[in-house]
Design goal:
By secondary structure, the protein is mainly α. The chain has 4 helices and no strands.
Length: 109
């Protein structure tokens, strides 16, 4: 599970759509107190930051729609509580860029 901390417009198709799917899974774990991935480092860094996660989702959706994808899975904004900015990282953005470059996937990093 990974939520990237780089601009969505830099993500290739695979990583953009993959992050969107994983974000929905993470949102469910956090908003419905599900146990799956409850102790995953990515989950832990988003606790108390549902507003920031919601805003990340909206940026992903904007990029998806800009690329011609339909979006049919909105998040409930009433659940978007807590901090509006993510300041914790599993891997810092510079490391995330390095990881994406090594994949050779077409991400514009």
């Amino acid at each position: 599970m990974r939520i990237w901390d780089i601009p969505p417009e830099q993500l290739c198709r695979q990583h953009l759509l993959g992050e969107h799917n994983e974000l929905h899974a993470l949102w469910t774990v956090l908003t419905q107190n599900r146990q799956g991935y409850a102790h995953h480092p990515e989950t832990l860094r988003w606790r108390g930051k549902l507003k920031a996660l919601y805003l990340r989702h909206e940026r992903l959706v904007q990029e998806m729609q800009g690329r011609g994808y339909r979006h049919r899975s909105p998040l409930d904004p009433a659940l978007a509580t807590g901090a509006a900015e993510q300041t914790e990282y599993v891997d810092p953005p510079e490391e995330q860029i390095r990881l994406l470059r090594e994949k050779g996937c077409g991400c514009a990093v």
